[in-house]
Every structure is written in C-alpha cells, then in structure tokens.
Amino acid sequence: MIYQTEEQLLHKAQQAEGKTFGEIDQYDRVKNERAKGHLGQIVEESFFGYVVNSKKEADFSNLEIELKVTPIKKNKNGTLSAKERLVLNIINYYEEINYTFHTSSFWTKNKNLLLMFYLWIPKQKRADYKIIKSYLHRFPEEDLIIIKQDWEHIVGKIRDGKAHELSEADTNYLAACPKGANKSSLRKQPFNDELAMQRAFSLKQSYMTTLVRSIINKDNLVHIANKEELQKKSLAKLLQDRFSPFIHQSLTNIAQQTELQVNTKSKAFLQEFVSALLGISGTKLNEIDEFAKANIQFKTIRLEPNGRPREHMSFKNINFTQWLQEDWNSSWVKNYFEETKFLFVVFYYNETKKCNPNRELHFQGIKLWNMPKTIIDNELHTFFLHLQELIHAGIELKEVRQKNRTIVQNNLPKADFNNICHIRPKARNSKDKVALPNGDKIIKQAFWLNNTYIENIIKP
Predict the structure, then answer these.
(1) How big is the chain by its Cα radius of gyration, in Å?
(2) pLDDT at 181 over 70
(3) Is the pTM of this model over 0.85?
(4) What is the CATH number of the domain that holds 386?
C-alpha cells in the first residue's frame, strides 16, 4: 500500500500500539530469537505490507520518511530510556565525501523518522515484546544545527584520511558507530591505505533516551542555548564562553556574582556550580537538554599548587565475573569511553593544606574531552585483556602485616601499569567486599584514570 499523506501513515503506525510482535508477525520471523533486525522486518512486511529492502532512499520514499523500530527499557527507578543507539545507514567512505550535508546519505534517508518504540524486557521472548508508541520525528532546529556540525566532523575526518580514527565520542548527537567486530568488517578508505572499521551513521543512545523522556515521559528539559547561538559557535565554544568570565576567581567571589551556595563537601555542589555559572540555577545536570542528548558526564578535578590532581579519578565498580565473560567489542570499558564525553570542571588551590587547612578553591576552567581512539584501541584494550587474564588465573590475595594492622595485597594492575588507568579499592570499609569468579572475596574495586594522565589532559 502507498501511503499518500503523513497523517495516513502515522494513523496506521499508531494502530500497532499495544500489539506484540507475535500478534503482528505473519511469516514466523519472530521465532528466530538470534536474528538481529528481524523485529523491524516484521513491522515492514507484516504490518505495513512492503518487501524488506536496502534502498538508499527512505522506506516511504514518496513522503521522505524512514521507518525505525527501536527498543526502550524500564529502569530500576521506574523511568524509561532507550536501550541502545539508533543505527541508521552505512557510511560509504568514498561516496560521503562528495556530498554536502543536505545531499548526504544521512539526510536524504533520515530527515524524517517514523519511530516505533517497543518495550524490551530481559529474558522475555521477542514475540511478547509490545509496541508502546509510534511517533513521527522531525529534528528540531537546535538539534539539526548540532547534527550538521557532527556530520561535518565525521566527513572531515574521512577527507583527512582518518576514517580509522573515528570515534562515537568525537561528536554530540550524530555518531559514526562501528558495524562489525572483526577483520571482515574492515573497509578501504580514501586518502589513506590503512583499513578502517565499517561504520554507520547513528543517533546516540543518550539522544534517543532524551527523545523517550520527552515523547513518552513528557519530561521538560532546559536548553542552555538557542539556535542563533548554536549557528555561531559549537557547543564546546559556547560552554567555554559561558564559563570564561569566572576563570581564576575564588568560589567566594563567584558566589557573590551568582546564586551559588558554596558547600564543596556537598555531593550536589558540582551540579549547583555548573547550573549557577550557566545561569540556570536549580536545574539538575540531567535536565539540561544539550548535555543529556550528547551524553556529557561531569567530573570535578581539584589541583594542588603543583598543578597535579591530588586524587586519581574514579569510575564504576568492577564486576569481575562480567569482565571475565565480556568480549572486548561489547565490553563496558570500551563502549563507555567510546560513547561518553566528559566535561571536566577544574579547580585549584594556591596553598597546600599543610600551610592553610582552610584554603579556598579557585576556578581554573573547563575541559570538554573524550578518550582518543588510539588510547582506546591500544592502552585500554591491552589493559582489558590483562585484567581478564588475571581474573581467569585467579586474583592473588596475600595478607601482609603493616604496622598495627593487616592488609590484603593483590596483583591487580596498579597506576604504573600503563600510566593511564588502574584498579584500586572503592568501598565503604574493609568489610565491603565482592565475590570473585573463583569464590574468593575481595574489597570492592573500581576502574580509575591516573591523576598524572588527567594532569596531561587538562594542561593548556
């Protein structure tokens, strides 16, 4: 059937709401639990009645609308979020460089998206997944400005012969995600003999989660920029301009100019500091539209007078069983650093704590950063494999008497392993332990970036 109007198409799509894939499927596709992409094909064939294809144009080409069937999940706190990124079309490295944004394969195929969200439930059969919302998405002007900048960054790297260095964290909303996990997924690229991973344009999981929050949860997020500002400068430049008037000022001085309440021991201090300097005091960081869509995570850095962070930077606790069983390409550590941007909010002390126990923090500035792909592919990959080998062999635990106490030493990688990252404890106390795959118990451990590595990142 040819749908003549958007209204007609959307009306048809909305008739699927509340139905399971088992109820929709007419060709027994849903029985194949392992096949990826079959849920979208079921909707195409059995619901909309057209033959599955890989056309360059949009699925409903007469309306310039592309169909995407995508999963959402329910979180522990009851909210909904996207389960994964939304993969769009494969990037042809040789063709994409000849386009402008508005003639690009991304835009001609995906300018309008008919999104059909289904609820993914762990261990539930695909036949029982239920479609809960159909929505025709047009990119808001503010989003489109950032997406265009993202596309230009991706294509710019290809034109520079750096397709092999593309990383999802390079961009904000639109990403070049890997499609494949081995040597058979490598492709030739122009301007460089080095093979590059096959990639596809995709909307980040964080962008899709923000859509879900807006469309289904009806959340109202706060914008820090309007389209006029975004047309003049990138998100990174905009943030630098917002924070720069306060550089090298003490927190006391900053508080006098803003609505900031200074309490550096409060867990909410970073949130209050950022929102105050952005002029949106009282707004939680996860309620800022641009940060939520770009998956920008915030980290505080406090520099000692010597310019070095006093502490290493901690991340999530290690699940040793999961780490042992994971493949590198689907591992938490690889995907987290490939997909996450960090906004480092940097403070410094002019005095040592010994000289002045009541020393005051000063604001040094911000740094928008993502881990370079070369580091991910080399040092981080080696670290992942090394830890996996240690877990497989059994982590060595040895009681050692030091002064008036007994400590348990281990052979987990320390800060000097690769000068980038290491494993160290992150627990409430010595009794806060977790089981290792071999049954031994160890104080809860976390992944950390070295303070010396952080020091090099934030150097002017």
Answers:
(1) 25
(2) no
(3) yes
(4) 3.40.600.10
